[in-house]
Every structure is written in structure tokens, then in C-alpha cells.
């Protein structure tokens, strides 16, 4: 369940909008069974358009055969989740006005 919220605060000196990430008030718990798709969605709002990156347990993630970033990095997908994918994922959105983040607690269950 995703709610889209917009916060329109203007930083006058920068001419940029302070960013807001939907659902950032609390971590989202996501549980999937091993071998299934895990999908995390990060909806960020700001002007200029924020650049999004993802971290797992504080380490920046890069896409590979196991992990896919879609839609300008707003969606992180793990097509065949493994138990060792369990962890705390963070969506970081940055622009000239600052940064915002959202945390996801992903748990991958063995069969």
C-alpha cells in the first residue's frame, strides 16, 4: 500500500523545493518467499527532480544480474530473492535543496 504525499516548501535562496518521499514517516516491512520477486518503490518529489540511489545496510547498491533498478531508480527489483537479500534497504533522494530517505526492512523467507 503506497500513499503519495507532496510537501511544497520552497527554499528561496536556492529556488529549489525541499524533497519529500512518500511513506518516509516509518520503515516499510516487506516479506517475500525465496525465489519470488521483491519490489521496493521509492516515490520522491522535489524541484529540481531528485536523483535516487539505493543502499543495503548502508552500502550503495549497483544494478547487476540479480538486482534491477527501473524508472529512474524509483523501483528496485530483485526478481529471484535469496535469503541473504534480507536487510535494511534505503532509498536516498538528492537535489540542490537537500536530501530525503526512506527505509525498507526486507525479509526473505526460506521455503
Automatic annotation (TrEMBL):
The species is Amphiprion percula (Orange clownfish)
What are the Ig-like domain coordinates in residue numbering?
A: 16-107
The lineage, from the top, is: Eukaryota, Metazoa, Chordata, Craniata, Vertebrata
Q: What is an annotated GO biological process for this record, any one?
A: synapse organization
One of the entry's Gene Ontology molecular-function terms is: axon guidance receptor activity
Q: Which protein are we looking at?
A: Ig-like domain-containing protein
Domain of life of the native organism: Eukaryota
Entry-linked InterPro entries? Cell_Adh-Cytoskel_Orgn, Ig-like_dom, Ig-like_dom_sf, Ig-like_fold, Ig_I-set, Ig_sub, Ig_sub2
PANTHER family per record: CONTACTIN 5 (PTHR45080), HEMICENTIN-2 (PTHR45080:SF28)
Q: What's a Pfam family this protein contains?
A: I-set
GO CC, sorted alphabetically, is:
axon; neuronal cell body; plasma membrane
